[in-house]
Amino acid sequence: MRLSVVIATKDRASYIERALASFALQQGAPSFEAIVVDNGSTDTTRSVVQAAAERSNFPIRYLFEAEPNRGKARNRGVAVAGGFIILFCDDDVVVPPGFLAAHEAAHDAPGLVVNGAIVNVPDYEHRPKPSLANYSGAFLCTCNVSIPKAAIDAVGGFDESFDLYGWEDTELGVRLRESGMRRRFSWDAFLWHIKKPSEETLDVLARKAVEKARMARRFIDKSPSSRVKAATGAHRLNLLRAKYLLPDSLLAFYAGVASDERANATVRAIAKTQFLDGIYARELSRALEK
């Protein structure tokens, strides 16, 4: 087995069904399997994955991990994977026919972490090719990344103490980089990431921002380097801004503009970014004071 695709999911049966269907359409792909780790779903995820496995032209394995923990779920998948290379992706993606072949081609030298372009789209109908806006300098993003299994095992996999949203993949990237792994970005290994506006509500994103700030504290405690502090926003100017320049009234204003459908789309987008950045910065400041 050359490649093992590991997908963690929770209560997203319709998404995982579409993701698996797109893997069935691969062309020129190496031998591969998909391992779906159900992270405590209460919907029809189990039956959907099992039905997909019965009709699939590639092996699909279903695992159940009751504890909601992204790192733990992915570690479960890696532990049973038979592939030389582990490819992580999210459940809300669709991959083009040459996706797996592109990832394999990018591993033309040892010691590589291959990140593919991520094209965010609002629905399943939009399928644009990647553009410069889709470039990422991240060392590791689990929405679309492939890594030799031996390298993951060598550094101990994901840190399962990151039990909320955020930073567990970046933290793994730090350890992989320190072990001598090198990053490569592949435009050919792109995928479409479905981000439905109806589900990406301000409340949902604000909760994620709070969780991410709390996990940033954990990340900093584990890796208190200037690089990590800069990446998480835990530098003096940002913390002073959070403490003195982000009152409730300002965040409420940003939230109001971001939610106003009469406002200009660009203005709404800016307000949304400022609101979420403010929520994150204030929670990070509080977390670091504890």
From TrEMBL:
Domain Galactosyltransferase C-terminal: 135-182
Keywords: Transferase
Pfam families found in the cross-reference section: Glyco_transf_7C, Glycos_transf_2
Keyword Transferase attached: yes
Glycosyltransferase 2-like domain segment(s): 4-128
Gene3D superfamilies with a match to the protein in the record: Spore Coat Polysaccharide Biosynthesis Protein SpsA, Chain A (3.90.550.10)
Single annotated GO MF: transferase activity
Protein's UniProt keywords contain Transferase: yes
InterPro entries: Galactosyl_T_C (IPR027791), Glyco_trans_2-like (IPR001173), Glycosyltransf_2 (IPR050834), Nucleotide-diphossugar_trans (IPR029044)
Protein name stated in the entry: Uncharacterized protein
The organism of origin for this protein: mine drainage metagenome
